[in-house]
Structures are given as structure tokens and as C-alpha cells.
Amino acid sequence: MSICATAALLPVGGAVAQTVTPFSFGLWGDLPYAKNNDGPKMKRLIDHMNAADIAFSVFDGDTKDGSSECTDASYRDTVAMFESLKRPMIYVPGDNEWTDCHRLNNGGYDNLERLAHIRKTMFATNQSFGQTKLTLEQQGKPGEKFSENTRLLHNGILFIGLNIPGSNNNKVLDEKDCTNKSARKAEQCAADNAEYEERDAANIAWMKEAFAAAKAKKLPGLVITIQADLGFDLPETEGKDERKAPGFDGYDRFIDALVAETRAYDGQVLLVHGDTHFFKVDKPFINQANLIPNLTRVETFGSPNAHWVRVDVNPASPELFVVHPVIVPGN
């Protein structure tokens, strides 16, 4: 069964305000991790989400732990898990699925080959996962470069997914970073940095298109889902921005663009990510440019805590997005 979304018909022109009707959606990610024996928890989690009154859910990356191999079978298992959801589910890739696959304990794969495999097998169509489907707009052609970057307009709220993974967004800092516990060679690290540059530009362009459409259509809210923790929770020392330390510079241009676009937008922006496995809701970027009132960060639960987050879209609320942690009994 397919529910046709209107994102593919989202021209930038026109200034007719969109009507927002209340609905709820789910957020989850960083599951299951074999090293934490998450398997038994997953049925309870999925059953709980299937019983919930949500329109769809978004998975913000890391479908396996960071010390298990990036086998073809692992992706097939992920697809089976996603398809067990009764409602549509949108997938955003994480570093454990491709960026870190060069590591010896991940099987020593060519991580760019694994990214291409994910695109061909998990983004081969414009349909979401789940037993009920949503039609998504993709930045790239199905199965090809940037097909994992998606867009959906639902009930007056615009959703985008961006391939921004942990591990510094696949940016390699130096020779030590290249070869540490890794099967990579120098030429592969050069290829990784070229990939990072191209994808970073594509991500920013896709996000800017979304903001332009949201402003043109007078949409009250935009939800941006990525996998990486951009360094939000590093120490905050007066006069020093710890997030500028090496290891996080792969996110600098995206952050600068996000801050600028959010400040120029009258609606509410919800930035969703996983990566560090602690449920949080806050107003990030305090040190960079003081508080950004219309930007809210939500970090989802992650292994070993197999829970999820429900977001209610409430047009009557000044914040628009009302966030609830959902604890799954038995997990």
C-alpha cells in the first residue's frame, strides 16, 4: 500500500500558507547492537511502535554496532527489521553502516563500496520502508549518488533526511587517522576526503532547498534528521569553542549553513540525530552564536536503551513540536 506524499510536488514558488493538522511521528536509532544483546528487545520495541498512534517513524542511523562486520547479510537483516513496521519508516544512514566499515573489526571493507551498496539496496526506489509506504523525494536518482537524501511534506511540515554520519562525516584528518585499526591505504583515504567534499556540498544544497521551499510555502516547521552528534555536548568553556577541535571539523560548513538558514526562517526547526545514545532535548549552539530560539535539538535513545521518541505536531503550541520520550516496558 502506498501513500503518496506531496514532497515531489514542492515547487519553491508560491506563497500560499500550508495548513498544519495535528499528527505524531516516531524517532529511533542506534539499534540493534549485537554486542549489547539487543536482539530480544527489538520485538518489544517494534510491537510498541506498531501499537502507537503515529503517522510514520524516522530511523536516524546505526543499524548495527561499531565492532561488527559490514556484511551484505547485515543490511538484509536491517531491511527485514524495517519492513516489520506497520507504518511507514524513513531511514537515514549512520557511520556504522558505511563510514567505519574500513576498520579491521568491521571486516576491512572499502567503505565507499559499502555506501554504494546501501544506495543500491536500500534506496533503490522512492518508497519508504514499512508495510505501508510513503513516496519520498530523493536528491539523487534511485539507487545512485545522494539517493539517501530524502524529502517529505506531511500535513504542512517538511521533513528532510541527510547523510551526515559520525566519524567526522567521513573526513580523514591525517595519515594516523587514515590507517589506525584500518585496512585503508592512502589512496582510499584521499577518495574518502573527495567523497566527503562532494557529499557535504550536496547535503548543504539539499538543506538550503528545503528552507527555501519552507519559506516560500510559509510552512511553520522543518524537521532535519542526520545521524551524527555534531559535537553539541563537548565542554563549553568561556572564550573557547571545543567543538572546533580536530575530529569535528567535518561538520563545520553544515553547521554554519544550518545556523544561517534557521535564523532567516520564521518557523520552528527540529534537528534530530543519534550517534551518542542519550535522549536529549535542548537548544544547541550556545557558544557559537548565543541561543537560536527556533532551533531545537532532539537526540534519540540508542543501545542498550531500546526505546523511542514520539513527537506531537501541535499547531497551537508556540514550539510546534512537542517531544516525549517513550519507554518500552521490559527493555
UniProtKB/TrEMBL annotation:
Q: Which domain of life is it from?
A: Bacteria
Q: Which residues, if any, are the signal sequence?
A: 1-17
Mind telling me what this protein is named? Calcineurin-like phosphoesterase domain-containing protein
Q: Which organism is it from?
A: Azospirillum griseum
The record's listing under InterPro entries reads: Metallo-depent_PP-like
Keywords associated with the record: Signal
SUPFAM superfamilies per UniProt? Metallo-dependent phosphatases (SSF56300)
